[in-house]
Amino acid sequence: MNHFEPANRRILTLKPGKERLVANRHPWIFAGAIARESGPANAALADLLDPQGRRIASGFHSQHSQIRVRALTFGDEELTEATIRERINAAVARRMGSGLKLKVPKNDTRLGDRQSSALSTSDLTPFDNAYRLINAEGDELSGLIVDRYNDIAVIEIANAGVEQLRPLIIDCVQQAIAPRGIWLKNDIPARKIETLPMDPEWIGEGEPAAEIRENGLHFHVDAPSGQKTGFFLDQRENRALTRSLAAGRRVLNLFSYSGAFGVYAAAGGAASVENVDSSSSAIELARTNHALNGSEATFTVADAFDYVRKTTARYDLLICDPPAFAKSRGDIDRAARGYKDINLFAMKLLDPGAQMLTFSCSGHMSLDLFQKVIFSAAQDAGRRISFVRRLTAAPDHPVSLFCPEGEYLKGFLLEVH
Ligand code: SAH
Known about the structure:
The protein is an alpha/beta fold and 417 residues long. It has 3 domains: 6-74, Archaeosine Trna-guanine Transglycosylase, Chain: A, domain 4, CATH 2.30.130; 81-212, RNA methyltransferase domain (HRMD) like (Transcription Regulator spoIIAA), CATH 3.30.750.80; 232-416, Rossmann fold (3-Layer(aba) Sandwich). 29% of the residues lie in helices and 28% in strands. The strands form 4 sheets. A 7-stranded mixed β-sheet has the order 16-15-14-17-18-20-19, sandwiched between helices. The chain starts with 9 loop residues before the first strand and ends with a strand.
């Protein structure tokens, strides 16, 4: 079936007065803005009409989600198969950096054939061989995340329309980076709402695991057991910053997961590195990664909230990168208390001159609120603190100006006086 045929699309008509939402090019069109609908209920794509019947947007459709359309095109722009291919190719090109050449066959907008890209792409990108290839709204492809881990790709699809276009997306990813295999993770909660299967799938050869290289360091990524898509690529630059600050310092890496911050700190000449995570499999992964890089560290399976209260150790550089405490808007107060608590007790482990990288990856937690939480933690900890830098996600995680919700990771480099 050709999902792009007009007859195969859902037609949704906006309620009067809701046109403004679309004029702002926000890609999420909610059920509450829709007056009438027609066409196949399970269509992959939908056209959005204004109350006068003019098409004003088109995009991925969902009959189950509150987000009924994830708009890709607006106004007169046509949504065709070429639109999707161009968006994916643009996303790939964006990662390659301007000074770096790609083999692009003449008269072909695709990024090289399978063989030439298999030979060359790992050396072409400024991100080594691991990066977010497609970042949903930030690459104008709402509902789709693709990460590259050396010779495998991990795809996470959040919308029923995107799921129906899987063959097209897989074809584009294969054309672009020719991975040995593609792991379809299929585990985000949104898929339940979309009534999509939650079982993962492996399309490829060998094991769905890879060893990646990042800023000259090496990490093991196991797609099936890994958290999220397997490795937190968004922290790449903040890890590099950690390496540059670590020389001679006693480093505590709270919520260490893969131990990546710890590995960077050790590579930067830290006097000691302690990784703390409540998950024993995460700690095993951190051990593997330190071993891969020939670096020493200590490893503790513990609840970080307990650890910071009980330890008698003191540190000169502390990383605090917890999971998202606010999963929904209603969670914000509870999450703010969690962030305050962990930061307060972490600050007590620091002496004057020490530095701390502290993060929130909760999309619902604004930068402003996070700063207030850190302020109140510093007050209660009795520490004089300034922030030296604001920290954010790496540039392979672009954020659409029209969808600021995509900016979830925020952090500060703090210094104790
Ligand atoms: N800093 C990591 C990513 C952290 S992800 C990196 O750069 O890769 C969050 C981690 O926090 C997970 O590994 C999870 O197991 C751990 N975690 C969740 N709750 C915890 C708790 N209460 N105490 C310690 N670790 C916890």
